[in-house]
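Troubleshooting: if your tokenizer reports a length mismatch, compare your output against this known-good record of 123 residues.
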Amino acid sequence: MTEHRDPAIRVVAMPADANSYGDIFGGWLLGIMDNAAGLTAARRAKGRAVTVAMDGMQFHEPVKVGDEVTVYAEIERVGRTSMTIAVEAWRRHRHEEAAAKVTQAKFTFVAVDDQGKPRAVDS
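Known-good structure output:
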């Protein structure tokens, strides 16, 4: 994935999302990434899909208040009921053009029916 792809989500990190040093909480970023993966999974499954796993994240750089956060999501694998989605988060300082990757993870989603039971992705 590169920063020249269409983003799944783009947001600005706000003061409510940060600690007292102005660094954005990792949990906030994880939530944005899960949301991006979920949107991608729901489109592919043509319906509800739920997060069942995520591999470990490693933060490369901090995200600061005011940074633009762009999240890219790409389906890597589709099984009968599940999907693996690679997600990258990039940050760009408010007054700069250059972006830097801050973290990445792989999310696993399962397509579910109205009762929450697994269903075929291609149903």
